[in-house]
Design a protein that fits this description.
With 81 residues, the chain is mostly helical. It is built from four helices and no strands.
């Protein structure tokens, strides 16, 4: 998938792509492990956001973490996929 296409996606579809790559029996082990780790980080981030934090600063911190994770997913998928 082209980087431009990945950049148009939200974090949820990116996490799905990472999950698919992690479960791909034809993927290199290191690629599958990295994809699985990124999906796991996303799941942990979602868990921390549910329910939404009552503190504004914590909410902003989580949004920053999400943006950084999304960028790492795009960077990874653009070369691995």
């Amino acid at each position: 998938m082209q980087r431009e296409e990945l950049e148009q996606m939200g974090i949820v579809p990116l996490a799905v792509l990472c999950g698919e790559l992690a479960n791909d029996s034809e993927a290199e082990i290191s690629v599958a492990e990295t994809a699985g780790q990124l999906k796991h980080e996303w799941a942990m981030l979602v868990a921390r956001q549910t329910p939404p934090p009552p503190d504004y600063n914590e909410m902003k911190n989580l949004e920053s973490e999400q943006a950084a994770l999304r960028k790492r997913m795009i960077d990874f998928l653009s070369v691995a996929g």
